[in-house]
Amino acid sequence: MPRPFAASLALAFSLALPVLDAAPRALANGRFPQSSQIVFHPRDARVISARTTFGLVVTHDGGATWSWVCEEALEFRRTEDPPIARMGDGSTLVSLFAGLHRGTPDDCSFTKPDATLGAAVVIDNCVDPSNVDRAYALTSSGGRENQPWRSDDDGATWTPVGAPFEASILFETIEVAPSAPSRLYLTGAVPPTSTAPRAPFVFRSSDGGLTWERFAFALELTGVQRDKNIFISAVDPVDPDRVYLRVSGDPDDRLLVSDDGGATFREVLRMPLLRGFARSDDGATVYAGSDVRGLHRSTDRGETFAPVSGGIERVNCLALRGDELWACGNDYVDGFTLGRSRDRGATFEPVLRFKFIAGVPECAPDSPVTALCGPRFPALRAMFDPGGAVDAGVPADAGGGADAGVIDAGGAASRDAGRAAAVGAAGGCCSVAGRGARGPGGLVVTAAAGVLALVRLRTRRRRSLVVFGPRGDGSGGALAPRTPPRP
Questions:
Q1: Alpha carbon of 136 to those of 124, 133, 180, 353, 393: distances in Å?
Q2: Staple 363 to which of 286, 324, 367, 387, CB 3.0 to 4.6 Å?
Q3: What Cα–Cα distance (Å) separates residue 37 from each residue in 4, 286, 316, 399?
Q4: What is the dihedral of CA 19, 307, 272, 433, to 10 degrees?
Q5: Exposed (0-12), middle (13-18) or buried (19+): which is 453, by Cβ within 10 Å?
Q6: What 3-state class would DSSP assign to 479?
Q7: CA 118 to CA 100: how far, in whole Å?
Q8: What single-letter DSSP state applies at residue 234?
Q9: Which runs of E-coded beta strand occur in 179-311?
Q10: For residue 121, what are the contacts with CB-CB under 8 A and spacing of at least 6?
Q11: Can you tell me the distance from the alpha carbon of 67 to that of 65, in angstroms, rounded to the nearest whole number?
């Protein structure tokens, strides 16, 4: 006989208390601290960025030290997970509901490079793997015409690509084929109404975005499975017609593959909370990761997958750099926030834990990041390390070989390697995982966390993991689903 719901709540509450003693309290924005995207500098192996639920963390020395860029300096909304990218000159692109922002290579200032893109919702961005000084941005404002934009100067200036799409379509993702720079892909949808479900599409251009072919995508809405949104995860590095697509749904997410340029898709993997995706430079090896079912690997270009046990339990993003597999783990379950594997995911070595964040980037005293983030850092540090065991983000006893308390994340391209090429960092717009749609980012860690978790488990099969938020320009635009971060 099933346990009565009230008794289950009480049990969950009691079991949660010991865990809550070990984990930090929720952040001021009410979100559980989590990383969900890793980005490598395409020309400097020492520079790595990670998106978190409380801003960005960055390193300029291969992982020896990490700094924090707060939400206020970036204009994050409290519940969005904006896609980020590093350009060839080191500038950072951040696609926000508040418009496209561009950060300086030293991560000291983030501004809007274009007035039009600064006024629109920018849902995604993408660096061209064949030219890392070129990037695309995709707008998705409710009630307005939207379209891709392109920059050929590291995000300093932008021009619209082709004619705008009709205002009824809201977009999610944009990708460039690594082997054919004129081949672009978009995903978008007509939002649901009281009488019709969401109607998603895949868009394909073979002339750099001047013209587009539109392919309707059929959602699975029968039985227990209910699909919601679709996101391009990657384009094969050698075949521009081979496309990987993730479908967010309830109770499972699905990974699909197309061999005809997005016209049709077939399912290759299904599991709940699919959060990570990465492929090798030749496309032969593909990784996928779940926040509840860990890491899976394919050695036949994504046709079949098998679980990889032991290395990580809670995958929230994946990225490949050469033979190194990087992952966003759960700091309190996996023992790392960012980890790196040199044995195809069998084991991971910690690269970063949140309590080792040393401070804010070294900037001028009057820089926006110093002024906005500097006063907030002591509270962040106290939350992650309430006992004061770290000194400037470094443990008092790092254990000998671990310099500065973390693994030297530079690998073969160490902190002294200068501007050595970051192998694999430019392997496509999806060479790093976790970009795209905005998400709730996890449960609030409070005394009632066990209760909330149980309620969530009971309701997961009845409704999607979708929360609603404005997609307009701040003037009463249309509402559309905001989904968890995509691979």
A1: 8, 10, 15, 32, 36
A2: 367
A3: 39, 17, 8, 28
A4: 90
A5: middle
A6: strand
A7: 5
A8: E
A9: 180-190, 199-205, 213-216, 226-235, 243-250, 253-258, 266-271, 274-279, 286-290, 294-298, 306-308
A10: 96, 97, 99, 139, 140, 141, 142, 471, 472, 473
A11: 7
* 427 φ/ψ sector (left φ>0, alpha ψ -120 to 50, else beta): alpha
At 139, which helix (H) or strand (E)?
strand 135-139
**For residue 284, what are the contacts with CB-CB under 8 A and spacing of at least 6?**
299, 300, 301
Quick count: other Cβ atoms within 10 Å of Cβ 78?
Answer: 13
Q: Report how far residue 41's alpha carbon sits from residue 303's, in angstroms, rounded to the nearest whole number.
A: 30
Residue 110 confidence (pLDDT) above 60: yes
Q: What is the C-alpha separation between 290 and 270, in angstroms, rounded?
A: 10
Cα–Cα distance for residue pair 442/10, rounded to 1 Å: 21
Amino acid (1-letter code) at residue 126? C
pLDDT tens digit sequence for 95-105: 999 999 999 99
Q: Report yes or no: 289 and 271 within 8 Å, Cβ to Cβ.
A: no
Portion of the chain with pLDDT greater than 70, in percent: 74
Percent helix, percent strand, percent coil in the chain, to nearest 5: 15, 35, 55
Whole-angstrom distance, CA of residue 487 vs CA of residue 133: 23
Written as one string, the DSSP assignment of 116-133 is HHHHS-EEEEEE-TT-TT
Contacts of 322 (CB under 8 A, 6+ apart): 281, 423, 424
Radius of gyration, CA atoms only, the chain: 21
159-191 pLDDT tens trace:
999 999 999 999 999 999 999 999 999 999 999
Q: Which of 28, 139, 32, 129 is nearest to 83 (CA)?
A: 139
Please tell me the predicted confidence (pLDDT) of residue 388: 64
Phi and psi torsions of 21, nearest 5°: -65, -30
The whole-angstrom separation of Cα 232 and Cα 242 is 11
